[in-house]
Design goal:
With 156 residues, the protein is α+β, with helices and mostly antiparallel strands. It has a domain at 32-114: Immunoglobulin-like (Sandwich), CATH 2.60.40.2340. The protein is built from 2 helices and 9 strands, in the order H-E-E-E-E-E-E-E-E-H-E. The protein has helices spanning 2-16, 127-136; strands spanning 32-39, 42-49, 52-58, 67-72, 77-79, 92-97, 104-114, 117-119, 140-142. The chain has a 7-stranded mixed beta sheet with strand order 4-1-2-3-7-6-5, with no helix packed on it. The protein has a two-stranded parallel ribbon with strand order 8-9. A hairpin with a 6-residue loop joins strand 6 and strand 7 (104-114). It is elongated. Residues 136-156 are annotated as: Disordered. Residues 143-156 have a biased composition (Basic residues).
């Protein structure tokens, strides 16, 4: 009985002394996971590669009231905060720092304006057609490839 009591006391002491350590997330990651701009109902995702953030937007889309959406790796921080940027037509440089502030990565944001294209040919016969075409925003007309028909030769 005495031995059972001693064993119970030792077991109680051993479990009472256990420490639970909370490990802090010491990360050294410092990268942007995703980045996009939204204007109106349209969202334009960025291509992130080699320290560059490139957003491709049609030339006739205004970025005046564009809203940014971005995601960083876990526990990283970014400066300046993209939410504070008002002029997305300009180049911006962002500094992403790791949680431990030991590693920084610089990203250069640029906007790339793209054409609005249509295939085929156009014939605009009236001023109303010209005005409607101007409102469409199309600035490039791609020629359709000319396909030759290859028929079978008639046997002689």
């Amino acid at each position: 009985m005495k031995i059972t009591g001693i064993i119970c006391c030792l077991a109680l002491l051993c479990t009472a002394c256990s420490e639970e350590k909370t490990e802090l997330p010491w990360g050294s990651d410092n990268y942007i996971v995703s980045f996009s701009l939204t204007t109106g109902a349209d969202t334009y995702p960025a291509v992130i590669r080699d320290g560059r953030i490139t957003v491709s937007i049609p030339y006739n889309v205004s970025l005046e009231d564009a809203q940014v959406s971005y995601e960083l790796c876990e526990h990283a921080s970014i400066y300046p905060d993209p939410a504070t940027v008002a002029d997305w037509d300009q180049e911006w440089q962002f500094l992403v720092s790791s949680y431990d502030n030991q590693n920084d990565r610089t990203y250069l944001y640029t906007v790339e304006r793209t054409d609005i294209a249509t295939d085929g040919s156009l014939t605009l016969r009236t001023q109303a057609e010209v005005d409607a075409f101007a409102r469409s925003g199309i600035n490039t007309v791609r020629r359709q490839p000319h396909h030759r028909r290859r028929g079978r030769r008639k046997p002689r």
